[in-house]
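User: Design a sequence. Structure:
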């Protein structure tokens, strides 16, 4: 049985009132579902990926025969930080030894639907189940109740993706709502603009191609500018367009290359192993 997951709402700042805070993992949202002792491991969209995650099969066999657990699969670096690019590489290569399933909610146990219960009651039930099962590859996701700002700053200093704030008395609802909030860490830096991809409709810039200070390709940024800013950027860049890329880069289609005279301020989540920005957003020209 697959249960549509509850989703968190992005929140800017820190919520007031009574909340608990969990680490925001940088991985794949997954759901353990066991019925009469048979296991499935569902993606967020309801696909059974158990055959892709051999690391968890033994652990699932130690869980109660009828149970549904919500959580996230991550690939863990030696530092303890989760790494999404590493997770994708592990899946592609079939490597399993760095994978872990962090369990943060329980939706069903036996014949009892636990979703109407308050979050903290569900988490207590989940903790007891995992403690008794001693299931390899499955770890209980702890929560904290301290000052949000201090917890968030500590998470960002550790290089984590951020925090999830949750209402301790809220039931589980299969939708995006404000009883779960995403507090995301972002980094900001400056990059040379070396080209642009035209907007798919009308005039203006659809995305900027970027390079680091030592002129290595850093990917592109395609969000953060209004139609007015997009058109203004295109007009400025067209004045300094060149026939070939100003950096060493594989051929890119539908790109206008420019002299690296403009510097863009960009916010981003992190950088992939290939040196490309993830979740980049344009903040303006420096």
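Assistant: Done.
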């Amino acid at each position: 049985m697959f249960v549509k997951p509850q989703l968190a709402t992005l929140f800017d700042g820190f919520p007031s009132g009574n909340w608990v805070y969990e680490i925001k993992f940088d991985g794949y949202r997954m759901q353990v579902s066991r019925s009469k002792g048979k296991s499935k491991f569902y993606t967020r969209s309801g696909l059974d990926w158990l055959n892709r995650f051999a690391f968890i099969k033994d652990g699932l066999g130690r869980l109660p025969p009828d149970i549904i657990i919500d959580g996230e699969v991550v690939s863990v670096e030696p530092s303890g930080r989760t790494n999404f690019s590493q997770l994708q590489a592990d899946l592609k290569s079939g490597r399993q030894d760095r994978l872990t399933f962090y369990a943060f909610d329980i939706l069903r146990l036996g014949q009892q639907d636990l979703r109407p219960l308050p979050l903290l009651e569900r988490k207590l039930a989940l903790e007891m189940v995992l403690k008794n099962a001693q299931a390899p590859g499955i770890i209980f996701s702890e929560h904290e109740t301290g000052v949000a700002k201090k917890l968030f700053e500590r998470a960002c200093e550790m290089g984590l993706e951020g925090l999830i704030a949750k209402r301790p008395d809220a039931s589980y609802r299969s939708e995006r709502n404000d009883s779960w909030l995403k507090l995301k860490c972002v980094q900001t830096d400056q990059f040379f603009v070396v080209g642009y991809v035209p907007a798919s409709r009308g005039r203006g810039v659809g995305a900027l191609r970027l390079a680091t200070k030592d002129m290595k390709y850093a990917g592109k940024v395609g969000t953060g500018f209004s139609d007015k800013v997009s058109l203004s950027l295109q007009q400025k860049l067209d004045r300094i367009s060149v026939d070939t890329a100003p950096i060493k880069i594989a051929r890119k289609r539908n790109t206008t290359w420019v002299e690296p005279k403009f510097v863009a301020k960009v916010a981003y989540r992190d950088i992939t192993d290939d040196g490309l920005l993830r979740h980049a957003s344009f903040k303006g020209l420096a």
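Helices lie at 57-61, 84-93, 119-133, 148-157, 227-238. The chain has two domains: 7-184, 187-285.
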